[in-house]
Each structure stands twice: as C-alpha cells, then as structure tokens.
C-alpha cells in the first residue's frame, strides 16, 4: 500500500477519491438514522452545533493540563504538522506524552498550534491549522503510522508509539 505522500505524488485523483470515501464511511454511524433526530457527535443525543470554530483547548482526554489529570495512563506518540508552504518543513514535530484514549484531533490540539474546526454531519472537520485554511478541494488530512484512517480524526484513538502526521494536500 502506498503511503499518503507517495499517493499524493503518483495519483492525486485517487487520493481525492480516498478522502471522499473516508468521509462517506464516517457518515453512516454519525447520521441520526431512522429516528429523524439530528446526528450527535458526542453520544448525548443533542444535535451538534454548526459551524463551531475552535482554538486549541481542553476537549477530550489528553488535552487538559497534566496537573488536572489524576491517575490517567500516559502513552508517548510522535506528532508532526507539516508546513503547507515550505515542502518538507514541519510546523511542529515532537514526541509527546498524552492520556491513553487521546484522538488524532486531540493530539493536534495539544500542539498549541491554532486549530480551527467546524462540526459537520460527518464529525469535526479541521478547516485550518495556523494561518493555512482549506481551499476548494485542498485541505488538511492526517495519517497514523503512514496509513490514512477511514474515520474522522476525533474517532481515531492513538496507541503508544504511533506516528501522527497532519499535512495539507493540494488537488
């Protein structure tokens, strides 16, 4: 299987279809189903607010200040956020200790970079990192250990030793 960076270079249309497929696969469990109720991303049954723009802040396990976390199991993960303008350069690249259960989105928020997120029918959608916002069919995507997950970033739970990479892809 090709890594996301290789796929982006060799077959950008296939990468676009892969991203669309990932969004479609994420939609089914998040839709309100037969009940006619709006979809809820937090499991409470309450409709998700739209749009919601957020900056880095406590949202889920691993995001709170360590002094506020008691007895939480920590894991170490590697997080990189690649520059959209300077190919090969990283805006952020560090190993970090996070709470077990932290998602790919949670780890991104812990970096301290400005992160803008909008709620969608498919779950939280990263619309900008730093000063680089999604534009047209280009935008921010992520991989874990070189593989593109088929679920939204808030649903991808990181494991000890994982390498999370966020990068801006252009189609």
From TrEMBL:
Residues 101-169 form the Transcobalamin-like C-terminal domain. The keyword Signal applies. Transmembrane segments: none annotated. The keyword Glycosyltransferase does not apply. Residues 45-61 have a biased composition (Low complexity). Keywords: Signal. Residues 1-27 form the signal peptide. Coiled coil: none annotated. Residues 37-71 are annotated as: Disordered. InterPro entries: Transcobalamin-like_C (IPR027954). It comes from the Bacteria. This is DUF4430 domain-containing protein. It comes from Parvibacter caecicola.
